[in-house]
Design brief:
The chain is an all-alpha fold. The protein is 81% helix and 0% strand. The protein has 5 helices and no strands.
């Protein structure tokens, strides 16, 4: 997971922080609007497209690549995820069973329901 953060999240964080800070013309050498416009003009000339379209193209590519990477990570950890989901389901069933027991003990269910539950083998 550390490798995921280092090789995927860190460069994306750097790129998008540069993108928004340079677009806002924060200042400094790297974060000026002039550098921002020149950078995207160069990319636009190389790709043969408008510089305005490049940011959306990059965003779409990052979303698709991120979904692919998350799917790979989920596939590799599918047993842990399945165990977590099963644990949550069992905890939810146990909590609802405790609620039913407390309701029957409080006299909210008729005695016939409580007697039927005892016959099945569940405690009241």
């Amino acid at each position: 997971m550390r490798a995921f953060c280092v090789f995927w999240v860190a460069p994306l964080s750097f790129f998008w922080s540069w993108y928004f800070l340079a677009q806002a013309d924060v200042g400094g050498v790297l974060y000026t609007r002039e550098v921002f416009d020149q950078t995207f003009a160069i990319y636009g000339a190389i790709l043969g497209m408008s510089p305005d379209e490049i940011a959306w193209l990059i965003a779409k590519a990052i979303i698709v690549d991120s979904l692919i990477l998350l799917a790979i990570i989920a596939f590799r950890r599918r047993r842990k995820i399945a165990a977590f989901i099963a644990e949550r389901r069992n905890a939810g069933k146990a909590a609802s069973q405790d609620d039913m027991d407390s309701l029957s003990g409080a006299g909210l269910f008729p005695d016939s329901v409580a007697a039927g539950r005892e016959e099945i083998g569940q405690s009241v």
